[in-house]
């Protein structure tokens, strides 16, 4: 297991949902890697901070893998794996920031139309996905020439598929805001979008 | 003199056109890490019972230069080229069966057989195929290529593709498949836990569930078909916003939710045990016994 895999597995590890082999592999890695051990500590602290938030702003548990997924590769890409700890702390700071009314208002202004019918918690969490997707898209746009045209076409086609799903789930959730299945489907679609963008970015960076 | 000049000229002209023949080997521990990198071509990896990494194959000149190095704990090999992906590379790699194998390619196909260790396989447009009896871990990712696993059992599987087809024919202890628009077909004798999600692709699952296992099937508009043995001990929680739910496991029919705009089906089969959650937006859901 390398550091990137370890970071991606931390959330499941903390939740206790990691499989036995995953857990064992991660623990072996953590025993030998100071940086990942520090990330685990930061993630624990982040979770504690999130637990202290008012319930209306607390993200659903299944959102965390998405946040972890989006942060780790982005950090790998920009600053290298050794500075991952700073990102987790930054994530905690962002989370606490959006808990404040000023932060929430700021994020609300950046969300798409018809957003007023969605809850504030949904909007703040959606904003974090949108930010991640936007940043990954920017990286891909800058490096577009490094991708084969067929790959770009596949990527764009599948992003369009996901965007349609997000739009449809979003509109339905606005009309039925208490529907937990819709909420889960919306988060899944956002997570899938970020994951696909990360996958494309990895094709540029992994060697 | 003229003949020798002519011969030299012919040699000079012919040399760049000759493919590089590869035949190299290095000693390696049974659990060595093997890293393979090639932009294109066909990469075949076969596990064997020797403590050696052996490579044969061919590398066309335009594809770059073959390299191989490392020690007993780890071996790195592949084709070093800066240009566009050039077809024609063939690497036939034999590795200790328990090795940890990492492969990355852009357009190349990856085929793995008889490796029982861990596999990390990345391709952008190529396909990935893993065959074997018992495999510890398979992580495979492709943007548009197909991902296929055919084995007796795999402890842990993580597969991700955008538009490729995913085919798993194996018992799996812990399975996660993420797809966007490709078809996902999973079948095997037993699944300890699993998560299969897609956006528009179809999901077809067939196999036995563990009583203590958790299973999530999620799709936006792709159909989800789940076949489990009759009398499977499970609690089912199925929700679809606009799709239809067909229940072939019990006589119970899905109902409109009293609190939300969706169809729901909550049933217990056998004596309960496994937790199965199915969520779709427009995808139709079918539950049945084979």
Task: Describe the overall structure.
The complex is a heterodimer of chains A (about 210) and B (about 290). With about 210 residues, chain A is mainly alpha-helical. Chain A has helices spanning about 5-15, 20-30, 35-50, 65-80, 85-100, 100-110, 120-140, 150-175, 180-205. Chain A is built from nine helices and no strands. The model of chain A is unreliable at about 50-70 and about 70-115 (pLDDT under 50). Chain B is mainly beta. Chain B contains one helix and 23 strands. The chains are: A mainly alpha (about 210), B mainly beta (about 290). Chains A and B meet through helix 2, helix 8 and helix 9 of A and strand 11, strand 12, strand 13 and strand 14 of B.
Q: How would the blueprint of this fold be written?
A:
The complex is a heterodimer of chains A (207) and B (290).
Chain A: H1 3-15, H2 20-32, H3 34-51, H4 64-79, H5 84-99, H6 101-109, H7 120-142, H8 149-175, H9 180-205
Chain B: H1 2-14, E1 20-27, E2 33-37, E3 42-48, E4 52-59, E5 65-70, E6 74-80, E7 90-96, E8 100-105, E9 109-113, E10 118-123, E11 128-142, E12 147-161, E13 166-178, E14 184-198, E15 203-209, E16 214-219, E17 224-227, E18 234-240, E19 245-247, E20 255-256, E21 263-269, E22 274-280, E23 285-288
Parallel strand pairs in B: 2-6, 2-8, 3-7, 3-9, 8-10, 9-11, 10-11, 11-12, 12-13, 13-14, 14-15, 14-16, 15-17, 16-22, 17-23, 18-22, 19-23
Antiparallel strand pairs in B: 1-4, 4-7, 5-6, 18-21, 20-21
Identify the notable features of this structure and list them briefly:
heterodimer; A: 207 residues; mainly alpha; 78% helix; B: 290 residues; mainly beta; 23-stranded mixed sheet; 59% strand; elongated; disordered N terminus
């Amino acid at each position: 297991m390398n550091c990137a895999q370890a970071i991606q597995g931390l959330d499941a590890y903390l939740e206790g949902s990691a499989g036995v082999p995953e857990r064992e592999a991660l623990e072996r890695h953590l025993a030998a890697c100071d940086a990942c051990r520090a990330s685990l500590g930061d993630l624990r602290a982040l979770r504690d901070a999130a637990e202290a938030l008012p319930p209306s702003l607390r993200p659903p548990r299944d959102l965390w893998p998405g946040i972890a997924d989006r942060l780790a590769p982005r950090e790998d890409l920009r600053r290298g794996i050794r500075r991952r700890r700073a990102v987790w702390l930054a994530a905690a700071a962002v989370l606490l920031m959006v808990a404040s009314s000023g932060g929430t208002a700021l994020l609300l202004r950046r969300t798409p139309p018809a957003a007023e019918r969605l809850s504030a918690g949904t909007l703040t969490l959606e904003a974090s996905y949108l930010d991640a997707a936007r940043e990954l898209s920017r990286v891909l746009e800058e490096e577009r020439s490094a991708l084969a045209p067929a790959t770009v076409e596949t990527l764009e086609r599948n992003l369009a598929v996901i965007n349609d799903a997000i739009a449809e789930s979003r509109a339905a959730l606005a009309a039925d805001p208490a529907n937990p299945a819709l909420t889960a489907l919306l988060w899944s679609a956002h997570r899938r979008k970020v994951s696909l963008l990360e996958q494309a970015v990895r094709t540029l960076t992994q060697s | 003199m003229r003949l020798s000049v002519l011969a030299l000229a012919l040699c000079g002209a012919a040399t760049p056109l000759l493919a590089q023949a590869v035949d190299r080997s290095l000693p390696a521990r049974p659990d060595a890490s093997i890293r393979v990198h090639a932009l294109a071509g066909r990469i075949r990896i076969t596990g064997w019972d020797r403590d050696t990494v052996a490579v044969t194959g061919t590398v066309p000149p335009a594809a770059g230069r073959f390299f191989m190095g490392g020690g007993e704990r780890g071996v790195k090999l592949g084709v070093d080229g800066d240009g566009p992906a050039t077809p024609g590379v063939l690497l036939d790699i034999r590795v200790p069966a328990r090795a940890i194998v990492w492969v990355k390619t852009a357009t190349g196909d990856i085929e793995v057989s008889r490796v029982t260790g861990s596999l990390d396989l990345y391709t952008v447009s190529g396909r990935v195929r893993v065959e074997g009896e018992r495999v510890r871990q398979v992580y495979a990712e492709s943007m548009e290529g197909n991902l296929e696993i055919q084995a007796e059992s795999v402890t842990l599987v993580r597969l991700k593709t955008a538009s490729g087809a995913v085919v798993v024919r194996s018992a799996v202890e812990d399975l996660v498949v993420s797809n966007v628009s490709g078809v996902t077909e999973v079948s095997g004798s037993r699944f300890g836990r699993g998560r299969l999600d897609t956006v528009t692709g179809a999901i077809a699952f067939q196999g036995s569930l563990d009583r203590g296992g958790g299973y999530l099937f999620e799709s936006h508009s792709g159909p989800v078909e789940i076949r489990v043995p009759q009398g499977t001990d499970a609690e089912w929680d199925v929700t679809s916003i606009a799709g239809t739910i067909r229940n072939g496991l019990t006589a119970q029919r899905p109902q409109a939710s009293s609190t939300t705009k969706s169809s729901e089906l909550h049933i217990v089969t056998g004596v309960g045990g496994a937790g199965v959650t199915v969520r779709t937006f427009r995808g139709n859901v079918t539950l049945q016994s084979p």
